[in-house]
Design brief:
binds manganese (II) ion, 8-stranded parallel β-sheet, two-stranded antiparallel sheet, globular, 16 helices, alpha/beta, binds 6-deoxy-beta-L-fructofuranose
């Protein structure tokens, strides 16, 4: 069922912007003056801010939950078409989320061609395809209880490989250019899993999947410290992902999900390492206080998000690492107590804010302070950028691109959720 229903109309966005444009102009000019005194041209920063794109996770448009419960809100998307419609609304307001990452089988389209046409009619396309061999589907022949791509039973591995190749087939029609693999394989007790055997089986399985991908596709290998396995996880950290990606092929890269690390791990340094090694494929942005909490990006550790973008901009300024593609920026969150669209709107803004602040770092001064081992001034150089309020750039870039000056306010004022509540009984 191709759901269009209520859409926020451009007239509403124009009047939303109209009452804000004078303030935005004043604030933008004031920021421009401040940045000019730092030797930075605001126009160039704005252009780079406008060029950023962040992919939205289809699976985060409905309320998430935990094993202790899920509390769905009104007007939840009931199928992939309604999920795409909500993602298109986020792109309408932010103008930097033109692609959606699908999860199969959660979003398996009856006819990928129809879905592709529907999505493009709403101005969005598709990002990486996400496979799922971490839960059993009804009609599934063999269980993934004891693993999938690393399972001891070759027929289970074959089933998991076939599922990933099906994701590639669907993605080919949708215009996707990447497959993202995360597996929950691992053990709950010492001795349960042969650490090296399971890892070798995983790599061999990925090689089979890689061989079945079109020549211009990328393979993202996502690591995670624990959960659902509570003692050992086959693909547990960046080192394991780096070696696996290197073994699988030149178009295989590591995917850094911010929630997949032990507490207090220096993730920005892992990013610098993977960039150094030319194996950083992309990110699943979210935030966390304890475990893989999948909270809104920038909501708990905004300075860490800034430091990650600082490493990314550093690498880009130095011309990048040969063979390392432009990293893919994707969100992977679970919205348990907020309106999913509102959380995604807020998260997209926090990601764009961190990127723009990272563009403001005086890298020449930083390099001198680092050379001089002047720690205080080195940190201050970063903090000067991180504490710069770049909201005028974000708002002005959105308005120039036809989006909303304040996406969250516009979404609420539009009554979109209430309308969907009526439509999506
Ligand atoms: C695993 C993960 C992975 C997804 C899933 C929804 O924790 O981060 O990226 O497939 O969440
Ligand atoms: Mn993830």
């Amino acid at each position: 069922m191709n759901e269009t229903g209520f859409r926020i109309d451009t007239g509403f966005i124009a009047s939303h912007n109209g009452v804000r444009s004078a303030d935005i102009r004043r604030d933008y000019d004031a920021l421009g003056e401040l940045l000019r005194r730092r030797g930075i041209g605001i126009g160039e920063i704005a252009a780079r801010a406008a060029a950023l794109t962040v992919a939205l996770p289809s699976w985060a448009t409905a309320t998430g939950g935990t094993r202790f419960g899920r509390f769905p809100g009104e007007g939840e998307p009931r199928n992939v078409f309604e999920k795409i419609a909500d993602c298109a609304t986020i792109h309408q307001l932010t103008r930097i989320t033109p692609r959606v990452a699908l999860h199969i089988p959660w979003d398996r389209p009856g006819d990928p061609g129809t879905l592709a046409a529907f999505a493009s009619s709403l101005g969005v396309g598709f990002d990486a395809m996400n496979s799922n061999t971490f839960e059993d589907q009804k009609a599934q022949r063999l269980s993934y209880k004891f693993g999938s791509l690393s399972h001891t039973d070759a027929s289970v591995r074959a089933q998991a490989i076939a599922h990933n190749l099906e994701c590639v087939e669907i993605g080919r029609v949708l215009g996707s250019k990447a497959l993202s693999i995360w597996i929950g394989d691992g053990g709950n007790f010492p001795g349960q899993v042969d650490f090296r055997g399971s890892y070798e089986r995983y790599i061999e399985s990925c090689k089979s999947i890689y061989a079945g991908m079109p020549g211009d596709w990328l393979l993202y290998i996502e690591y995670k410290l624990f959960e659902p396995a509570m003692y050992s996880t086959v693909l547990n950290d960046w080192g394991s992902a780096y070696y696996a990606a290197t073994a699988v092929g030149p178009r295989a890269f590591c995917l850094v999900d911010l929630g997949h690390h032990a507490p207090n791990v220096n993730i920005e340094m892992i990013v610098a390492r993977l960039l150094h090694m030319g194996k950083l494929g992309g990110f699943h942005f979210n935030d966390s206080k304890y475990g893989d909490d999948d909270l809104d990006s920038g909501s708990i550790k905004p300075f860490q998000l800034f430091l990650i973008f600082h490493e990314l901009v550093n690498a880009a300024v130095k011309g990048g690492t040969p063979g390392n593609p432009e990293p893919a920026y994707m969100i992977d969150q679970s919205h348990n107590v907020t309106d999913p669209v509102e959380s995604l709107l807020a998260s997209v803004e926090e990601i764009q804010r961190a990127y723009v602040q990272a563009l403001l770092v005086d890298r020449a001064a930083l390099a001198e302070y680092q050379q001089a081992n002047d720690a205080v001034m080195a940190l201050r150089t970063l903090k000067t950028a991180f504490t710069t309020d770049v909201a005028p750039i974000l708002a002005s870039v959105r308005v120039s691109a036809g989006g909303a000056a304040d996406p969250l306010a516009a979404f609420r004022e539009s009554g979109y959720r209430t309308q969907k509540g009526k439509e999506r009984r």
